Amino acid sequence: MSLDVPTALLERAEAGQVDDAEFVDCVRRSLPYAWSVVADVAARAAGGDGVAEHAVPPPGEAERGQLLRALASDAIRGGLERHFGVRLAFQNCHRVAAFPPALVGGPVYREFVSPLAQIRNQSPELRNC
């Protein structure tokens, strides 16, 4: 299961009454490690040179699972991107980058999401992550 959804929120969702803020709050509470990684890169992207990366392997499998669930789900990833105002890019099981919208499509973004970058970012210890 990707998210720990409170009964009241599930009932509102079944009635079609969940807004983005409620959804994002559910993600924050359900996936705290993933939230902290995304919040960190988003804050650094907003306050620095425009792009920020996180490349530290998660401390354990539970945290790795949170990051994978957050970034593999279109709904969760999209909610995080809207909330933080960035485009997220993801490689392997832990390398996350945040790009401000103005840089999406630019050379740094294209390089990060390229097949060449994905291949260069491989190593035997990451093969099964």
What is the total number of structural domains?
1
Q: What structural class do you assign from the helix and strand content?
A: mainly alpha
State the helix count.
7
- What helical percentage do the residues reach? 40-55%
Give your account of this protein's structure:
- By secondary structure, this protein is mainly alpha-helical.
- The chain has a three-stranded antiparallel β-sheet.
- The longest helix is centred in the first third of the chain and has 16 residues.
- It is globular and about 45 Å long.
- The two termini are 19 Å apart.
Which secondary structure elements does this structure contain, and how are they paired or packed?
Blueprint: H1 7-14, H2 20-30, H3 32-47, E1 52-54, H4 61-72, H5 74-84, E2 87-91, E3 95-99, H6 107-112, H7 115-120
Task: Describe this protein with a few key phrases.
mainly alpha; globular; 3-stranded antiparallel sheet; 129 residues; single chain; 7 helices
